[in-house]
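Lab notebook, bench 4. Continuing the backlog of folding jobs that were queued last week. Each job is logged with the same field layout so the records can be merged later without manual cleanup. Today's entry covers 4-hydroxythreonine-4-phosphate dehydrogenase, a 329-residue chain. Filled in by technician R.K.

JOB TYPE: sequence-to-structure
TARGET: 4-hydroxythreonine-4-phosphate dehydrogenase
LENGTH: 329
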Amino acid sequence: MSVKTPRLIITSGEPAGIGPDLCISLINHSFSAELVVAIDPSLFAERAAQLNYAIKKPVAHVAINEPPTPGALKILPLKTPYPVIPGQPTPDNASYILEQLDTAISGCQQGIFDGMVTAPINKSILNEAGIAFSGHTEYLAQQTQSQQVVMMLATQDMKVALVTTHHPLRQVASLITPSLLEQVIRTLNKGLINYFGQLKPTILVCGLNPHAGENGYLGREELDIINPTLNKLKNEGLSLIGPLPADTLFTPKHLQTADVVLAMYHDQGLPVLKFHGFGKAANITLGLPIIRTSVDHGTALDLAASGKANAGSLLTAIEYAIYMAQNKP
Ligand SMILES: NC(=O)c1ccc[n+]([C@@H]2O[C@H](COP(=O)([O-])OP(=O)(O)OC[C@H]3O[C@@H](n4cnc5c(N)ncnc54)[C@H](O)[C@@H]3O)[C@@H](O)[C@H]2O)c1
Ligand SMILES: N[C@H](C(=O)O)[C@H](O)COP(=O)(O)O
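JOB STATUS: finished
OUTPUT FIELD FOLLOWS
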């Protein structure tokens, strides 16, 4: 059921990155939602001081049994096990990062929060700590036992979704099976209908190979996997175009025919989206039982505590989460 004033939990992410900086900057913005930041309060205060941040509004700790207060910024206090040095992440704080995510997931599942918005984390630090972790998207899918999720990045006039997410390029072609492609397209189609008010979304599908395989002479995935899957789903009434060569698909002539582009792999689709709208885009996970949006950038360790981090993408991610919470079926 949709909610008028959503309560969103923001995970502040890698404590040595720009996540805390961006969360602190929220204090001077107004939203039609209550924002609860999962962060160590000492880190919040310390980073605010490092940034010379003028905190104009008081920050209260969250009282989750109360109805959301529109426009409020609250803190859900957690504790970093090790001291935080801006720009220098340590695996010793990996448990703090996972605690943020687990708290947000269970809070959303229990209905305490209407959605979660994630600030960036450094995947390699979690792996260094012995936690196999390829991304929030995969972790959220696993923790919520979701069958199929889809990563979609969205900016005002472009949406790009991915068939495969965080995998070595060497593995990508073998991961693209008819079954995966079918599930991804169904999840994407349903997500756009449920959360974005589109009655019959049109999905523009990239080929995998150069020139979409050049009739099989530059790869057979289009002929053997993509075409048959698209035909099956088109016969069911889904609006699908492609597979088209990815190099020319991202031109106005094609983009204007569709609501979303489906790219076969991470660096086929995301460089175009980020070139077009870096800092103004959000990363949305479709197919979860909860609402989750995120920033379009990473931990930017070079900018932590510098005051130079741009909060545009976090603001966009929050606006998308509010929109989705207010429009969900
Ligand atoms: N949502 C996420 O959790 C997320 C997303 C992408 C990357 N990452 C992780 O972040 C780490 C670093 O990745 P990277 O270096 O490829 O990408 P990055 O986005 O951290 O940095 C790329 C460049 O963009 C700049 N930049 C990034 N965000 C900015 C902002 N808000 N304002 C101004 N400039 C900004 C950085 O200074 C850097 O020059 C990796 O471990 C990666 O896995 C996490
Ligand atoms: N693929 C994302 C991007 O490049 O912006 C990023 O790695 C974050 O992914 P998760 O939300 O799964 O962590």
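OBSERVATION: The chain has twelve helices and twelve strands.
SIGNED: R.K.
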